[in-house]
Specification:
The protein is an alpha+beta fold. It has 3 domains: 120 residues, Acyl-CoA dehydrogenase/oxidase, N-terminal domain (Butyryl-Coa Dehydrogenase, subunit A, domain 1, Orthogonal Bundle); 104 residues, Beta Barrel (Butyryl-CoA Dehydrogenase, subunit A, domain 2), CATH 2.40.110.10; 145 residues, Butyryl-CoA Dehydrogenase, subunit A, domain 3 (Up-down Bundle). It is 50% helix and 14% strand. The protein has 11 helices and 9 strands. The strands form 3 sheets. It has a 4-stranded antiparallel β-sheet, covered by helices on one side. A 3-stranded mixed β-sheet has the order 1-4-5, covered by helices on one side. Strand 2 and strand 3 form a beta hairpin. Helix 4 packs across helix 7, helix 7 packs antiparallel against helix 10 and helix 9 packs across helix 11. The radius of gyration is 22 Å and the shape is globular. The termini are far apart. Its cofactor is FAD. This is Acyl-CoA dehydrogenase. It comes from Streptomyces jumonjinensis.
């Protein structure tokens, strides 16, 4: 096969240096571009102000708009869900997090945690009751697993559900719950005499409150809450019937982590783009700083890690489409991509200098958001140990 002449090559694209877009089909590109356009119109003009104020105003309106885009429960089928491919869902996460991690978290918790739990483990009645309205963004969901004293070790949870006649009675607390205070339904995991079970707790249930957590310096444009369950009485049909044990919540987390693999690259891309534009226009010593070797070295290293991460996300997405994606591979992606995304943000900040700490630019906002993304849904250390066990066959968790 003859090699193309240099004149036949397509133009080099600094934002797609490896030509990854060539791996996407027209529907993939159309979905990506529609989400990018929505974020540019509905998030980017306002996000610095929301972040500075520490709130996500009009969250219900935004959620309905995301539902209209098909972004909620996107890879799920039926019940009003889009039935999109894993890669299309990943591209959506990337574009949303390029705007802000808080918006991507809203979508991830809604679809990959709350809706996924109901879709996979719920009864037909539960699916019909909740999923269509959640897919449309009319009902917001949250996912209650983490507790004040039990994050990385959910097996130690203290929230309990006991039988009282045909009812269940839940008591306990959950912490760092995205969407908690605005949710119409909470998927709450609790210890029972038969093992860990999932329960659907509707907002307004007596004894159930969700006070919002304030004073955050990360994910500020996001609703984060505590869930307090004080003898919350639920009917027998509130329990998710199709799973018992940690397999239930951990499978949900694995699905959400996949979205993070893509989303982190969105934050990294936005920071890289800001640094690249700044380097082309900011002048020192009589010329743009992008013309100096050290700045070019930084930009080259950032581009390499950014697009390696996007290729990794794409590879994992195709494996998920084929039904062969293992949890250890998701850990591989989450560990690498979030860690590298933070590194890209920090390097971008050095290129912007003092301007890098200003909300006029997205870099510091993305960097601080990623500090939360680095920790939630599995810390660096937990994913290292998941991979360590897979590599050696030896369990270092206990």
């Amino acid at each position: 096969m003859s090699q193309p002449k240099p004149s036949e090559y397509t133009a080099f694209d600094p934002m797609d240096p490896l030509g990854v877009d060539d791996l996407l089909d027209p529907e993939d590109l159309a979905i990506r571009d529609s989400v990018r356009a929505w974020a540019a119109d509905r998030v980017l003009p306002y996000i610095a102000d929301w972040y500075e104020r520490g709130e996500l105003p009009q969250i219900r309106e935004l959620t309905r708009e995301l539902g209209a885009l098909g972004a909620l429960g996107m890879p799920l089928t039926g019940y009003g869900c889009a039935g999109a491919t894993p890669v299309q869902y990943g591209l959506t996460c990337l574009e949303l997090e390029a705007a802000d991690s808080g918006v991507r978290s809203l979508v991830s918790v809604q679809g990959s945690l709350a809706m996924y739990a109901i879709h996979r483990f719920g009864s037909e009645e539960q699916k019909l009751r909740w999923l269509p309205d959640m897919a449309a963004g009319e009902v917001i969901g949250c996912f209650g697993l983490t507790e004040p004293d039990h994050g990385s070790d959910p097996a130690g949870m203290r929230t309990r559900a006991r039988r009282d006649g045909s009812d269940w009675v839940l008591t306990g607390r959950k912490m760092w719950i995205t969407n908690g205070s605005v949710a119409g339904v909470a998927v709450v995991w609790a210890r029972t005499d038969d093992g860990i079970r999932g329960f659907l707790v509707p907002a307004g249930a007596p004894g159930f409150t969700a006070p919002e957590i304030r004073h955050k310096w990360s994910l500020r444009a996001s609703v984060t809450s505590e869930l307090v369950l004080d003898e919350v009485r639920l009917p027998a049909d509130a329990v998710l019937p199709e799973v018992t044990g940690l397999r239930g919540p951990l499978s949900c987390l694995n699905h959400a982590r996949y979205g993070i693999v893509w989303g982190a690259m969105g934050a990294a891309r936005a920071s890289f783009a800001a640094a690249l534009e700044y380097a082309r226009t900011r002048e020192q010593f009589g010329r743009p700083i992008g013309g100096f070797q050290l700045t070019q070295a930084k930009l080259a290293d950032m581009a390499v890690e950014l697009h390696k991460g996007i290729l990794l996300a794409h590879h994992l997405g195709r494996r998920m489409e084929a039904g062969g994606l293992r949890p250890e591979q998701v850990s591989f992606g989450k560990l690498n991509n979030v860690r590298e995304a933070i590194g890209i943000c920090r390097t971008a900040r050095t290129i912007l200098g003092a301007n890098g700490i200003s909300l006029e630019y997205p870099v510091m906002r993305h960097a601080t958001n990623l500090e939360s993304v680095l920790t939630y849904e599995g810390t660096v250390e937990m994913h290292q140990l998941v991979l360590g066990k897979a590599l050696t066959g030896l369990d270092a968790f206990r």
